Amino acid sequence: MREQPEQQAPPVQRLRIRYAKRGRLRFTSHRDFSRAFERAISRARVPMAFSSGFNPHPRISYAGASPTGAASEAEYLEIGLAQVLDPAEVARALDESLPEGLDVLEVVVSAGGSLADRLEASDWEITLNDTSPDELRPAIDQLLATPVVMVERMTKKGLRSFDARAAIALLDVRPGGESPSDPPSCAILRVVLRHGTPSVRPDDVLAALREISGTSVRPAALAQRLAQGPLDAQTGTVGDPLAPDRDAAG
User: Fold this and answer.
1) Which of 201, 177, 182, 183 is nearest to 191 (CA)?
2) C-alpha span between 168 and 216 (Å, rounded)
3) Which CATH class is domain 13-110?
4) Residues in Cβ contact with 69 at an 8 Å cutoff, skipping those fewer than 6 apart
5) Cα separation of 99 and 82, whole Å?
6) How many CB atoms lie within 10 A of CB 161?
7) Most exposed of 6, 72, 158, 181 (fewest Cβ within 10 Å)?
């Protein structure tokens, strides 16, 4: 009979981390980021708690990872520690140990509950080069007025058809140039997407616009997640999922 492995002690502290994917690092897959983050933990000498079993692994829980190729200012994960540490020191050490473009923005002590349950929706900006907002407004109005818009996407289980419209809580467009970072001659879509299964992505919104109106929506130059968190269904705005943790810390 195989000898039972030693049981690991439970974490004495749980920290929640917000990080960003920027620049070329937006092409980092979730698996690539996981490897980079575990190496950063090792370099930063963060005293991790480990799971029990024959193959103990550091206690890291990922929530709501963005698609490969999308930039994001609002990625989240939670780690369990074997020692109580200052969250600010953990943030500094991890940020210094990660490659530039994978940036730790905030670390807070968990107040308990499920972080994933707070991530109800995402707020996205989609930049479309050589596109006029006036071209898109009729298509947007038509999409919002249509109860169901089916789109197709290739998944690991093959080609899948699903309703993209149900996930859209807010959709609008503005011209480029209003922000210094905007490229010229572009339209910038703002879309708030409810999370679900399957998860509706920015490219699915563009596919829905093409499907409903026949408009020639060009591929996105950049899709960037600005926020993810609890959804205010009345306003279509996305809240801060770490607010309850900060409030509990006083």
Assistant:
1) 201
2) 20
3) alpha beta
4) 26, 27, 223
5) 25
6) 8
7) 158
Cβ neighbours of residue 43 closer than 8 Å, sequence gap 6 or more: 97
Say yes or no to pLDDT of 112 above 60: yes
Q: How confident is the model at residue 80 (pLDDT cuts 50, 70, 90)?
A: very high
Q: Are 145 and 203 in contact (CB under 8 A)?
A: no
Residues of the chain with CATH 3.30.70.580: 13-110
Give the residue carrying structure tokens 């572009």: 186
> Which amino acid does the sequence have at 46?
V
Helix orientation angle between 87-97 and 30-44, rounded to the nearest 10 degrees: 120
Residue 22 in tokens: 């920027």
- CATH number for the region 119-237 comes to 3.30.70
Give the global pTM: 0.90
Confidence of residue 220 (pLDDT cuts 50, 70, 90): low
Task: Please give the C-alpha separations between residue 212 and each of 140, 144, 151, 152, 192, in angstroms, as whole numbers.
Answer: 9, 10, 10, 13, 19
Rounded distance between C-alpha atoms, residue 126 and residue 225, angstroms: 9
**Residue 178 in this model has a pLDDT that exceeds 90:** no
Residue count of the chain: 250
